[in-house]
Write a structure and sequence with these properties.
Strand content of chain B: under 5%
Helix content of chain A: 40-55%
Radius of gyration of chain B: 21 Å
Number of strands of chain A: 4
Oligomer: heterodimer
Shape of chain A: globular
Largest interface: A-B, 30 and 29 residues
CATH superfamily of chain B: Cytochrome c/b562
Number of domains of chain B: 1
Structural class of chain B: mainly alpha
Helix content of chain B: over 70%
CATH architecture of chain B: Up-down Bundle
Largest sheet of chain A: 2 strands, antiparallel
CATH class of chain B: Mainly Alpha
Strand content of chain A: under 5%
CATH topology of chain B: Four Helix Bundle (Hemerythrin (Met), subunit A)
Number of strands of chain B: 0
Largest sheet of chain B: none
Order of helices and strands of chain B: HHHHH
């Protein structure tokens, strides 16, 4: 009996240790950003390509070159409703006190400066593919935006998803920085970087499994709208037959080939894409056209 | 007495059913009318957009005519097309969110923005292709601003 108890305790201890190891908040190596210098001008393009303003401006805010990232937009999901936080440069209510390393750990690892997991509603499962240099540049650009003193609101997430530690298990299962599609030319590589990393297109256009991870075998083939109403379209060539010119024009103006216009969250995305270079919009088109 | 009561009830019920049917018909035709208005926008924009994209050669007269029509359609009085009860929560033929009816000043401002963009297009379309290209972005932005806030996703 005593022996059984001892084995049981040893096993429980071992199991507990494995659990803690799996669910730990894993940050970047300390020297990841070493030697990188910030360029806020380049960071502006990263900001638009990464779509920060689409989610972090207040609900109903107008598009702007210098948006107020006060937060407050709500994102319903099967796991609860997530509320985008204030990421303006205010040191108390925003992220003005963050170092570039803090931002890199948030975007590339989903870990807060306090060492807590973020929920993957924040699309670090895509951003993880970004270059640290781009995060450093973005950090410098974010500091140039206006500050907001609006406090961030808590997420409306119930048990068991309110246990942040469990996100560590989710990351262990699903978080990786592998590219999803091959890219054989420089243009396809650029398109892939915008679609799979910065633009995080897959977060809405790819269906999710029961634990809310993107099903990479059905990459960009469309998904139910998380609001519960309507569908986010399949954007692979199997379903989307628009010409290259039509796609690129849509990214610039929001006009579909029959001159309807983008609506809902995609209208935000078009506002971002319209601020990129024509070459970048063409690269996104090339990537989408090359999808299986 | 009993019979009078029954008749009155029957009449009341029939009137109610009739009124509901009328209201539904009325709302359905209002939805159709405003969707037709959107089609008219799209048709004129198709002419202007084909030139902007380079699908067809620039033609000042055709561009001006399309821009005039676009601007004319923005000037229609909207009230009758958007009756109470014609939102997506009440009627499955529309994707117009109920928020439109509770944020009227914002909807009006967005409508005005479209009108201004269309007037600017009217001035630009006959000038040259560069001016047309410059003006169409603002029209797209105005379309998108309203669709962003007030249109449900498609099925």
């Amino acid at each position: 009996m005593k022996r059984f108890l001892m084995s049981f305790c040893a096993l429980a201890f071992f199991g507990g240790a494995v659990f803690l190891w799996i669910t730990r908040a894993d940050t970047l190596q300390a020297d990841t950003l070493e030697g990188l210098t910030a360029d806020a001008t380049l960071g502006e393009a990263v900001f638009h390509a990464s779509g920060c303003a689409s989610c972090h401006t207040a609900p109903g805010a107008e598009a702007s070159d210098t948006p107020l990232l006060a937060g407050g937009q709500k994102f319903p999901s099967d796991f609860g409703t997530f509320v985008a936080p204030n990421i303006s440069p205010d040191p108390k209510h925003g992220i003005g006190g963050w170092t570039a390393t803090d931002l890199a750990n948030a975007m590339l690892r989903g870990v807060s400066p306090e060492g807590q997991h973020y929920y993957p509603a924040f699309p670090y499962a895509s951003y993880i593919r970004m270059q640290p240099q781009d995060v450093v540049n973005l950090h410098a650009f974010l500091a140039t935006l206006p500050a907001s003193v609006t406090p961030s609101q808590p997420h409306e997430v119930g048990f068991p998803f309110n246990i942040r530690r469990s996100v560590g298990g989710w990351k262990w299962l699903y978080l990786n920085d592998n590219w999803i599609m091959p890219a054989s030319t420089e243009q396809l590589e650029r398109g892939r970087y915008i679609v799979e990393a910065m633009g995080h297109c897959g977060e809405c256009h790819t269906p999710r499994n029961v634990l809310g991870a993107m099903d990479q075998s059905a990459w960009l083939t469309g998904a139910p709208d998380p609001s519960g109403k309507g569908t986010i379209p399949n954007i692979t060539p199997a379903e989307l037959s628009w010409s290259d010119a039509d796609l690129t024009y849509y990214f610039e103006t929001g006009f579909t080939p029959d001159f309807d216009s983008a609506g809902g969250h995609m209208a935000h995305v078009v506002e971002n894409l319209a601020r990129l270079t024509p070459e970048d919009r063409e690269a996104v088109t090339a990537y989408l056209k090359a999808l299986p | 007495m009993k019979r009078t009561f029954a008749l009155t009830t029957l009449t009341a019920v029939l009137t109610l059913v009739g009124a509901t049917a009328f209201a539904d018909d009325h709302i359905d035709s209002a939805i159709k009318a405003r969707q037709a208005q959107m089609q008219l926008y799209a048709f004129s924009l198709g002419t202007l957009g084909a030139m902007a994209k380079g699908d067809v050669d620039y033609d000042a007269a055709a561009a001006s005519a399309a821009a005039d029509n676009l601007a004319a359609v923005t000037m229609l009085h909207p009230g009758a097309f958007w009756p109470q009860g014609s939102d997506s929560a009440s009627n499955d033929k529309t994707r117009a969110k109920a928020d439109m009816w509770s944020n009227f000043p914002d909807v009006q401002a967005k409508g005005m923005a479209l009108g201004e963009a269309a007037v600017a297009m009217k001035a630009a379309a006959g000038t040259d292709l560069a001016a047309l290209r410059g003006a169409i972005g603002a029209v797209g932005g105005a379309c998108g601003a309203c669709h962003k806030a007030y249109r449900e996703p498609a099925n």
